[in-house]
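Review the following:
>
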Amino acid sequence: MADLSKEAALLTHTETQLKALMDRFGVSPRRALGQHFVVDPNTVRRIARLSGAGPTDRVLEIGAGLGSLTLALAETGAAVRAVEVDGALAAALRVIVEEAGASTVEVVQADASRLDFDEVLAGSARWMLVANLPYNIATPLVLDLLREAEAISTMVVMVQREAGERLTAPPGSRARGIPSVLVQARATARLVAKVAPSVFWPRPKVESVVVRVERHQESERPRLGPEVEARFERLVRAGFGQRRKMLRRSLAGLVTPDGFAKAGVDPAARPEAVTLAQWVALARAVS
């Protein structure tokens, strides 16, 4: 476990201490970046505990802010690479982790949506992502990491409740959508905790949840190949692009009646009722 004093470990966990840090470093929350800081020590320690991170793990954190979750992760002994897009916050965070004695934390000032993850994740073949993700990038970032960052085997992320429900929704659920299917093709996702707005500052107008995403082993994934995989995603996006319509209409021009028959999919079905296996079958049936 990292050598953190009790006082240092609690440095950014309360609203009073957070505001004092912001005054000290001359920073403030930026709405354009979706910045909401956790000011409850129980919440960040709970997320760190749910991640299962420990001294042998490498953790990527995105949206580190002033380090409430960063320090909770450092307490586990894990090696943490903390990414923060805001240059002023990143500079402040370097001072905070140094003063806390969090020697296992490395701060990277970068935009997560433009990162070269092969470079960022160099040094280990296995990582986990643990983060309070900014609401405005959460869903596309999770999808991008599943597609591009094979080294990340586990994600434990705090996101807006509606986004979490879409990431984890099973077939037949009203929350079922494009993220549900694309995540399911590569991973198993489940809600593991609910988070009240009161633990954030500024307080958001929405509820949050913690989602755990476990990447499938190679043997668990549909074997599609690049062409079929691209077709699969195109069909999913087209189907949910007109989710109130039956598939025969939303996929008109993409899937013929013979294609539906070959895939064993009812053309009168709506997209939220279609299973992953059926979407894959449709992608394979389309020439």
In short: The chain has a mean pLDDT of 92. The two ends are 55 Å apart (CA to CA). The first strand starts at residue 37 and ends at 38. Strands lie at 37-38, 58-62, 79-84, 105-109, 127-132, 152-160, 187-195, 200-201, 208-215.
